[in-house]
Records
---
Amino acid sequence: MINNRRSFIKLSSAAAAWLGLSPIAGADGYHRDEVEEVLNRNNLTRPSSQKSVINLRKSPIDKVKVAMLGVGNRGTGHAKLVNALYPDKAIITAVCDIREKQVNKTLENLKSSGQKPDVYTGDEDGWMEMCRRDDVDLVVICTPWKMHVPMAVYAMQQGKHVVIEVPASLTLQGCWDLVNTAEEMQVNCMMLENVCYGAEELWVLNMVQNGVFGTLTYGEGAYIHNLRDSLFGDEKYYNDWRIRQHIEQDGNLYPTHGLGPVAQYMDINRGDRFDYLVSMSSPPSSLIEHSREIEKDNEFYDRTDFLHGDMNNSLIKTALGRTILMQHDVVTPRPYSRINAIAGTKGYHEGYPSRLAIEGKGHEWLDEATTKEYQDKYKHPIWETLKEGIEKNGGHGGMDFVQMYRVVDCLNKGYPLDMDVYDASAWSSVVELSKISTELGSVPVKCPDFTRGDWENKRKLGIFEFI
Ligand SMILES: NC(=O)c1ccc[n+]([C@@H]2O[C@H](COP(=O)([O-])OP(=O)(O)OC[C@H]3O[C@@H](n4cnc5c(N)ncnc54)[C@H](O)[C@@H]3O)[C@@H](O)[C@H]2O)c1
C-alpha cells in the first residue's frame, strides 16, 4: 500500500514525510500503513445525513434535567455545582456510578436541597438505561478516559446533550465518532475544559480579542502537576485507571487544560486551525524509580514497563503559521503549572505567576499597579456577575462553577454551548497525534480538520457572543 502511487498522492504531507524513514513500528505496534489509514480519515466528507453543529440553536429548556454519569472525584463536585443551580435552572433526575458508595455520597450531598434522583449502580451497563430516560436533557460524563466516547455517543444517540470530562477522547476515531454523532443527532457535545473559564484565562482572552497583544505568533500550555502519590495510590482512581494509561501509551495524555485556553486565544476552528504536530518524550525514570518506593503489594510496585515518558513535549503548527508548545508531566517533583503563555507583536503574557509585558513599557514585566489597570479594564464580566455563586460554590477557585453555570444557562436559553464538539475533538486529538509522533520517532503528523473546512469562517466565542 505504501508504494502504491494512488495512495501516495492521497497521503497527507505528514505521512509522505515518513516515506523517507526506515521502517518503524511504535512501541505498541504503530505501523506506517495503519497510520496512513488513520490520517486519510482527515479527508472524510460529511455524510448527507449530517450537518454542522457550529452555533447550534435548540429550544430553550426552562429547567435542565441532568443525569450524572460517574460520581468519583470529579463527578461528586459537578453534582454539587448542578445542585447549586437547583431548583431554578436545573434538577438532577438520575445518578449513576458502578460503585454504590459513590452514589450514596452524592445522594447525601443532595439531601439538604431535597433532591432525590433515581439511582443506577452495581451494573457495568446501568448507565445505558439511565441515558434512555425521557426525563434527561443533559448527561454529565465523569468516568475514566476510555469510557468517555462510548458513553457520550450512546447518550447522544438517545437525543441527549452531553458534556464530557477531559480529554473527551483518547483516539482520533473517538473524536470523529463524537463529531459524527453530534452532527447526526443535532445535539450539543461539549468537553468540560474548565480552565477556559478561569479568571486569568478569560482576562487574557479578552485582551487578545481587544488587540492588546497585536498579531499572535505563539503560545505555550502545559499540564505539569505532580500526581505521583495519586497515580500509585490504591484508592484515588477507580481500578487505577489513570496509572494504567502510563503503561499503555506514550504522548501527551492530558493536553487540554493547557491547550484549550491557548486555542481560544488563537481562534482555533474560528479562523485558524491546528495543521501538524511533532512530539517527543523523556524516559519514564520518575515513574520507574517511584514505583520502587511504594508498598510491595501494590500492583504497580517495581515496574519498568511504563511506556509514558515523564515529560512529553509536543509542538503544533497552525494553518496561519503560529506555533504552540504543549507539555505534559505528572511525575516530576516540581510546582504545578499550565504555563498559559501567549505572545504577539505587541505583548506577552505568562502564567505561574501571571505576568504581563506590553510593547513600549520597558523590558521588564509590568509592575503590579499597571497590571491591575489591565486587569480592571479587561476582566471578563462573568466573574463579577457570578461573584456570589463563585464564592459560595468555588471549584478550582471558581472556574468550575462558572463553567457549570454557563452549560446550564446556555441550555436554559437555547444558546449553543461555549465549546463545541469540534473544539473537544481538535484539542483531544493531541492525545493520539502525540502518541503517533512520539512512537514513530517524532515525525510530523497532520491534524484532522474536524470542522471539514468551516474553520476558516471567523466567529465569536460563545462566552462573548451568547452572554
Ligand atoms: N477538569 C478537571 O479539572 C478534572 C479534575 C479531575 C478529573 N477530571 C476528569 O474527570 C474524569 C474522572 O476522573 P476522576 O478523578 O473523577 O476519576 P474517578 O475514578 O474518581 O471517577 C470515575 C468514576 O467512574 C465510575 N465508573 C467506572 N465505570 C463505570 C461504569 N461502567 N458505569 C458508571 N460509573 C462508572 C467509577 O466508579 C468512578 O467513581 C476523568 O476524565 C478526568 O480526567 C477532570
---
Amino acid sequence: MKSDAVMGGDIGGTHMRIALVEANGNLLHSSKTATDVRAGAVDVVNRLILQCREVMAVAARMKRSVSALGLGIAGKIDRLGGTILFSPNLPSLARYPLVEVLGAALALPVFIENDADSFGMGENLLGAGRGIPNWIGLTLGTGVGGCIVLGGHLWRGDDLGYSGEFGHMVIDPNGPECACGLKGCLEAHASSSALKNGIRELIACGELRNGPLHEAWIAGSLTSEQIHRQAAQGDILAARLFHRLGWALGLAIAGQFSALGIRHAVIGGGVSNAWDQFITPLKQSLNAHSSMLRGEEAVVLRTELGDKAALIGSAYLAGLQLSQPVMETNRIGTILRKSPQP
Ligand SMILES: [Zn+2]
C-alpha cells in the first residue's frame, strides 16, 4: 500500500466536488456531481456518501488508503461540533449531524470547514499565498467568502463558526440589499448575485432595454460569465457593474489592510475570472481608501489554484486535525463553550 491520501470536498449550492489528495497537496483524482438544493438533507447526504464511496474505490485501485474526509462548505460552520449552523446554499443541512452520519457511513474521521477557509489553506500551501505569512483571501462566487491568514495559520477568532466574513461587511449603508438581510454588504456589490441583480436594476430603471443581457434576464438564463463576456466586448453598462465590484472590493480590502497592518490579498472564486474587468478600479479604490499604506505597497493577487484550492485545503485541514487533534484553536473553542453566557 502506498502512502495515505485524504479526501477533500467542496460542497456548494450548484456542485459537490470530492478529490483525493496526497499529504503534500498533490491532487490525484476529483469528481463532481450536481447538488440538488431542493432535496432534503437525507437526499443530499446520501448522494454525497455515494460520491465519496466512488472516490474511495478509485483510491483502492490506486492502492492508496484513505485516512480522512474534509469538507469545505459555505456558511457558519461549527467545525468542532461537526454541524453546519447555517448555510445559504444548503439550508436543509442546518443542524444536521453531518460529521456523525458521514463518519458512520464511510467509516472515516470526517471534518468540516468553511469553504473560504479551505480555499485559504489551499492557496497558503501551494497557491498564491505560499511564502506570504499574512494575507486576507476573498472568494467571489454566488456570495463573497473570506479568510484571514496570520503567521501562516488560518485565523479562527473565537471559534464562533465564522471569521473573515468580509462579504457581510457593510460598505454602503444605502447600498443594495444583501441576502443576509443587511443593506450594502460587500456581497451585494461583488458577487455573481450582485452582478445579476445589477442587470435586473438596469432593466427596471429602463437603462437596459435590449441586447443579449436583457434577453438572458427575461429568459431566466443570465449568468455572471455572460455579463463578463459582454463587458469585455465593450458593453458599457456591464462594464459599469464590474467597476462597482472593483470599487467595493478595493474599499473593503483597504479597511482590512489598515486594521490588520498587512498588505497582501488573494482573490479567488468563479467571478475572479473577470479579473481584467475589475482589477484596475479595485486598485484605484484601494489606493483612494488607504490612509496608512501607499498604493504601490499593496499587493492584490489572483488565485493560482482556481477551483482546486478548496479541495486541496479541505483535505489538508482534515489531515492536520487527524495528526494534531488538540489544536490551540480547539482548546480555545472548548473553553468558550464552557463559559457562562454573559
Ligand atoms: Zn450581507
---
Amino acid sequence: VSDSFLHKLFGRAGKATPSVEEARTDLDRLAAERPELQPIVAWLGDMLAELAPPEIPPMGLTLDPAVARARLGEGIPLLRGETLNLDPREFHRRWRRACEALEICQPDPAVATLASALQETGLKPGAMVEAVLAGRPESVMQLAEEHGLDPGLTSTVLRFTLFPTVTALANSLAPLREGAAWEEGYCPTCGSWPLLGEFRGLDQSRFLRCGLCASAWEVPRLWCPFCGNRNHERLGFFHQEGEEASYRVANCEECRGYVKMATVLSALPPLHLLVVDAVTLHLDFEAAQRGFTNPP
Ligand SMILES: [Zn+2]
Ligand SMILES: [Zn+2]
C-alpha cells in the first residue's frame, strides 16, 4: 500500500495534466484510420506535454487598454511592435526538443541541421520572433535560407517552440479584445494567418484560429481571410468522402488560398487545435494537389 501511495505521490511530478491526456487520446483516436500520418502523429503525441500553455504567462507583457483598442480599431494586431522577453535558454531547449522528437519519428539530415542551428549557424531567435510579430513570416523563411536551413521546417519548429508561451500570453491579453471588432484574416493578437477554422455550435458560426497563439476570431461564413473575397461563386468547399460532417476545406478561386474548417461544438482548446491540424494533414495534401496554397 505504501509503495503505491509513494508511487502516486512522486509519480505525479512531471506527469501529463488532464488536458494533455485528453489531447493525446483524441490524437490517437482521430489518427487511427490514417496510418500515413503516423510519423507526424507520433511526433505530436510525444510533444503534447511540452506544448501545453503554462497557466501563468511566463513573461510580463501588459498593454494599455486604450492602446489595444486603437490598434485593433486600425486592424493592427495587439503584439505588433512589442518585444517578447523570451528566456533564451528555454527557447533553445524547446527548439532542440522539437527537433529531437522529430528526428526520432522521421530521421532526416535537415532536422539534425536545424537542431543545432541556433548554436552553429548563428540563427537568432530574436530576429525570427521579430519578423513574425512584424507580420513578415516570409522573413523567417528567408533567414532560414540564408543560414542553409529548410525554410518550411524552420517556420514550423519556430511555431511549436513559441506555442506554449505565446498562447499563454494571448490568453492573458484576450480581455483587451472583448467588444472590439476585428475584420481581418490574420490573427488579432499576433498577426499570423489562421492555422484552421471552426464551424462552432448549433448555429455554425465561423471562427478562425491562430496556429501560433491559439487566438480565435469570428469571421463571415462565406469570406476568404486571405484576399477578402465574398463572391460565393468564387468560394467553395471540398472534403474527403465520409468526413463532410467533421472536416472541410474552404477554398478561394480568386487568390487560390484555402483554410481547413473543423465542425466543433465549442472552441478547441490550444492542444486540440494542434491535434486537429495534424489529423487533417491529408486535406493539406489534397489542397496542394488542387493547386491551393496558404501563406506561411
Ligand atoms: Zn496569433
Ligand atoms: Zn482569396
---
Amino acid sequence: MDAPSVEVWAMAAGEGNVYLGPAALATFCATIAQRDHRVFVLTDQNTHQDCLPILSKYLTIDAQVCIPAGESHKNLESLAQVWEAFSQAHLTRGDLLINLGGGVVCDLGGFAASTYKRGIRFVHMPTTVLAMADAAIGGKTGIDFMGYKNQIGSFQQPMAVVVHTAFLETLPARELRSGYAEVLKHLLISDAAGWMAATDAVPEDWDAIVAKAIGIKLHFTESDPHEKGMRKALNFGHTVGHALESYFLTHDHVAPILHGEAVAAGMVCEAWLCCQRGLLTADAYTQIQNRLMGIFPKLTFPKSDIAAIARWCLQDKKNNAGQIKAALLDGIGGYRLDITLTLPDIEASLLHYFATPF
Ligand SMILES: NC(=O)c1ccc[n+]([C@@H]2O[C@H](COP(=O)([O-])OP(=O)(O)OC[C@H]3O[C@@H](n4cnc5c(N)ncnc54)[C@H](O)[C@@H]3O)[C@@H](O)[C@H]2O)c1
C-alpha cells in the first residue's frame, strides 16, 4: 500500500504553506510539536465535539476556547470572548493559535490573532468545504458588524493552512453543498473546462475538487493579496449574495440561510445581469441558472422586500465613490472588474430570480 501523501503548496514568500493530503495533519503537527511555544486552539461547538478529538491525537493542546456555532456568532461578542481567553491563558507573541473550524472560526480567529498584542501567529485548519476551498486561503479575516458582512477585518496571512478532508466526514450534507457554491464560483471565473466538467450534484469525493479550488484561489490571492485588482473577481456572486445573506441574518420572518446558498443565488442574479449587458450569451446564462438552481434550493423571501435587500449592497466593501461596484463574468471562465451597478439593476435581478420557476 502507498504511504499517505502530503502535498505542500507554497503561499507568498515567507507566509507559510498550504499542506494538503491524507498525511498533511500528521506531518504538520509533528513539525510544530518540536517547537518551543504553546498551542492554543479555537473551535466552535460543533468542531469542538467532532474535530478537536481528531486533532488531539496528533498534538498537545495547551489551552483552548470554544465559541457558539454559526454566522450569527461571527460578531464582536465572540471576538471579545476569544481575546479574553487569550489574555487569561497569558498568550504571548511567541505562541500559536490554531483555528479549527469552518469559515466563521477561520475569519474570526484570524482577526483575533491579527489584533491581539498587535498580532500573533495563527494556523488555519479548515473543517468545511467552504473553508478549505476558500475562506482559509488568502489572508482575509474579519467579523460581521451591525448586520453587515465582514464589516470589520484585516488582511493577515496565516502561518500555514492544513487541509485534512477527513474532517468532512461529520459535516452535515447541507453544509457540504454550501461549500460547493464557492468551488463552482472559482470555476466560473477562471476555468470554463472545469465548469463544464463539474457535476450537477454535490460531489462525494472532495480531495481532487478541494485541491483544484485551492489552486484557483491561490492564483488570484497571490497575484493580488490586498484586492486592488484581479482578486476582486473572487467576489462574483457576492454583491447580491452578501446583500441576501445580511437580509436573511437580520430578519426573523425568513428562515436562516447559509453563506454558500446566498452566494449561489447571488451568482444567478449577477449572471442574469451579465446576460443583460451582453457579457454572457443567453445559452450560457441558462446553463448557469439551471445548474445552480438545480443544486441549491431557491431562496424564499417576500417580493415586497426586494428593494430592502438591494439596499444592503450600498455597504458593499467593493463600492467606490458611492457607486455599487461588482465583479461580473465575461463569458464562462472570464471576468470583468469594477462594473457599476445601480439599485434598479440589483432589484431587477432579484425580481428575475424571484420569478424564476424552480
Ligand atoms: N476569508 C475569506 O476569504 C472567506 C471566503 C469565503 C467565505 N468566508 C466566510 O466563511 C463563512 C462561512 O463558512 P462556513 O460555511 O464554513 O460556515 P461555518 O464556519 O459556520 O461552518 C458551518 C457549520 O458547520 C459546522 N462544522 C464545521 N466543521 C464541521 C465538521 N467537520 N463537522 C461537523 N460540523 C462542522 C460549524 O459548527 C457550523 O455550524 C462566512 O462567514 C463567510 O463570510 C470567508
